[in-house]
Design a protein that fits this description.
513 residues, mainly alpha, 8 strands
Length: 513
């Protein structure tokens, strides 16, 4: 019986081998390529990154920074600093998964047949942009060994220290700047794949260097980063021509949602009743109202854009009985019944000309006004030359005209009319507050940047309601996802030992003195 089994098994194996012969050729479409090209990764990667940022901006940043208030008495309200551990998963999972697209784009762009320095540079800029958001949200994160599970079987990546991450990001951005400078005209970026700059390499270069400025400012106070402070100074003096930065609103990094095919804003997928259910916070809308901000001026919108009616303004904000008002953030649990929704963001089912649900400009990555406010702070601190007042007004003006290009008013007269003009005789703290209040408005919709800047500077000064949890202390970071503790326990423990407990009050490296 045993002698009979062996030939049968051999015959079966040979039969299976015969069945497999030609299987791959039979199931390969000869009319389609099996090779990937750098541009094939770009559009999807950009859309995914911006989507994760937009959702977190709406649900986390806006609630922490008193742009909105999600009315209710239940637990887990962000505006009360009542954090839940499971909130950590969304941005962590999304950005780390999508990072492979940027890295694959780079790998393809260095292959001899696809060699293209422009795509290499764009990949490095986008990696730096996303990694900076991740580390500024969580602190120490997987970086040097991240996303290597597929190719190197590193399934438990180490967590790099935030300082080391920043240093390597600066190297990446420096490399990107050089690659774009050296990239000849024959190395093009496919315009249809580039949803931000439509293939304009000069603007990608400006974005990369402007991103470097944002991050250099964030760490400039750290003694161990002194050499990078010198680099920052040189970007405005000896090395200025080698590091072009944004100089107008046309340089802004914005993924504009066209609404065509797959290019739909993630806000458009939110139920309309949910989108408009959230009230605006008093801190945000009261300032816009009291400073007569043109972005919420109904009559001005109608005049500039030739529409009619009484409900149109550039930020799609609904007035209440003809006025703008908001809810105080941080009110005590159990008192939600005392508040009703005030001004809110229009939803797409309402008969208005503008709603942020379908607004193309919500894919905001970085804008020129932010650069002017960075320069204002640097000049105020004496790090660069120039008048902080000039930079302040340039920032305020371009923050408005990014959204309303037809607004031609004198910015100094505009702010003076509501006593918001530059206070030349004010203290250093007064001027920092002025700069960062206007910067706060300029960072509207820009991922978590309002929160990051508040953690760095303490500005703008947010009112504190009597219902705040966490002893009224602004959270300093997001928890690590719970599953990381079991899937990568050794490196998780090492990160906690180095950085501090996995707690929302543990300050990340650049927040510490």
């Amino acid at each position: 019986m045993k002698k009979l089994i062996i030939p049968v098994v051999l015959l079966s194996a040979l039969a299976l081998q015969s069945c497999d012969k030609g299987f791959e050729e039979l199931n390969t479409d000869p009319t389609k390529t099996t090779k990937a090209f750098p541009e094939q990764f770009l559009a999807n990667a950009l859309m995914e990154s911006v989507e994760y940022n937009m959702i977190r901006n709406r649900n986390l940043n806006n609630e922490l920074m008193q742009v909105t208030v999600d009315i209710g008495d239940g637990d887990g309200k962000v505006f009360r600093y009542d954090f839940r551990r499971n909130w950590a998963d969304y941005q962590w999972n999304g950005h780390f998964t999508n990072m492979s697209n940027y890295k694959d784009m780079y790998d393809k762009a260095v292959e001899p047949l696809n060699y293209n320095r422009a795509y290499q540079a764009v990949s490095l800029i986008c990696q730096s942009w996303v990694y900076s958001i991740l580390t500024d949200t969580y602190g120490d994160i997987p970086y040097s060994e991240a996303t290597l599970g597929r190719d190197s079987l590193i399934l438990e990546p180490k967590f790099d220290a935030q300082k080391d991450i920043y240093v390597d990001i600066f190297k990446k951005l420096d490399s990107a700047n050089t690659l774009l400078r050296l990239s000849p005209s024959t190395e093009i970026i496919n315009a249809s794949a580039d949803l931000v700059y439509a293939g304009d390499k000069a603007k990608w270069r400006k974005f990369g260097n402007s991103l470097m400025l944002r991050l250099l400012l964030r760490v400039a106070h750290k003694p161990e980063m002194a050499e990078y402070v010198e680099k920052l100074k040189n970007m405005f003096s000896a090395e200025a021509s080698n590091y072009p930065i944004m100089t107008s609103n046309s340089d802004a990094a914005i993924l504009r949602w066209t609404g065509i095919d797959a290019y739909l804003s993630p806000y458009s997928r939110i139920r309309v009743q949910d989108f408009r259910a959230v009230s605006l916070a008093a801190f945000f809308i009261d300032y816009l109202r009291d400073s007569q901000d043109p972005r919420i001026d109904i009559s001005l919108y109608n005049t500039l854009y030739g529409t009619s009616g009484s409900s149109n303004n550039r930020w799609g904000i609904a007035p209440i009985s003809g006025n703008y008002a908001g809810i105080p953030s941080g009110y005590a649990q159990g008192s939600a019944g005392e508040y009703t929704r005030q001004s809110y963001f229009y939803s797409s089912d309402q008969t208005v000309a503008v709603t942020l649900q379908t607004e193309p400009m919500t894919g905001m990555m970085m804008n020129y006004a932010e650069i002017e406010f960075i320069k204002a702070e640097l000049a105020l601190k004496g790090i660069i030359s120039g008048d902080p007042k000039t930079y302040f007004y340039n920032g305020a003006k371009n923050s408005i005209t990014l959204w309303m290009p037809g607004w031609t008013n004198d910015i100094e007269a505009h702010l003076k009319a509501s006593d918001k003009e530059w206070n030349e005789s004010g203290s250093f703290e007064d001027k920092m507050e002025q700069i960062h209040m206007q910067k706060y408005l300029a960072l509207f919709l820009v991922d978590n940047q309002q929160w990051f800047e508040y953690r760095r500077t303490g500005y703008p000064k947010l009112p504190k309601g009597n219902g705040l949890r966490n002893n009224g202390e602004m959270p300093a970071r997001m928890y690590y996802p719970v599953y990381v503790q079991s899937s990568n326990p050794r490196n998780y423990r090492a990160a906690v030992e180095r950085q501090g407990s996995d707690d929302i009050n543990t300050k990340v490296w650049w927040q510490k003195p």
